[in-house]
Amino acid sequence: EVVMTQSPATLSVSPGERATLSCRASQSINTNVAWYQQKPGQAPRLLIYGSSTRSNDIPVRFSGSGSGTEFTLTISSLQSEDFAVYYCYQYNDWPRTFGQGTKVEIK
Amino acid sequence: QVQLVQSGGEVKKPGASVKVSCKTSGYTFRHYGISWVRQAPGKGLEWMGWIYVYNEGTRYKGSFEDRVTMTVDRSTATAYMELTNLRLDDTAVYFCARVQTGTNEFLDPWGQGTLITVSS
Known about the structure:
The complex is a heterodimer of chains A (107) and B (120). Chain A is mainly β and 107 residues long. Helix content of chain A is 0%, strand content 50%. Chain A has strands spanning 4-7, 10-13, 19-25, 33-38, 45-49, 53-54, 62-67, 70-75, 85-90, 97-98, 102-106. In chain A, the strands form 2 sheets. In chain A, strands 2, 4, 5, 6, 9, 10 and 11 form a 7-stranded mixed sheet that branches. By secondary structure, chain B is mainly β. Chain B is built from no helices and 11 strands. In chain B, strands 2, 4, 5, 6, 9, 10 and 11 form a 7-stranded mixed sheet that branches. Chain B is globular. The chains are: A mainly beta (107), B mainly beta (120). At the A-B interface, strand 4, strand 5 and strand 10 of A face strand 5 and strand 10 of B.
């Protein structure tokens, strides 16, 4: 199965700063990756699909990039509501797999 | 709007079975798939499998292959996930999610989650 490795595990960022989250796939998955945000007690929320396409109603401060095995989610200026856990997800191969998550916390 | 509403939480004993429902609304049920994802307490997301509503074709993660069954009822636009021979480590929140079919098979939106607790 495709192993998705996210780094770092925890990212401490001050409000207004930029956050860069990484996701590496164990084999090429083209651009078949999505990013999700999850807050405590809530279901995950789709942010990005196709590596770089923002989902509906997602603020422009969220952007995604990458192809093949290296992917990045960037939050240009962190707002208070962005502190959460972020997961990458590949839908190129079976079984589908998630990364282990990156927690973005307030510095 | 598109909604997925799941059944309520349950407590089960080891060896028992559980069937979780996911009632959908706001879209054409047969044009999409439904995936099931679980999350153990304090852990990450684990993809369990997928059912394509149109032809009821399924794909399961290997580690669940012999214990999970995913089905749909087109008449009520409801998906079901049954997990048998429950173990203590099956304690988790179970989510259903709509699967976009075609070029980009992402999961969106998600149900609210169903807590299944396995305890002796």
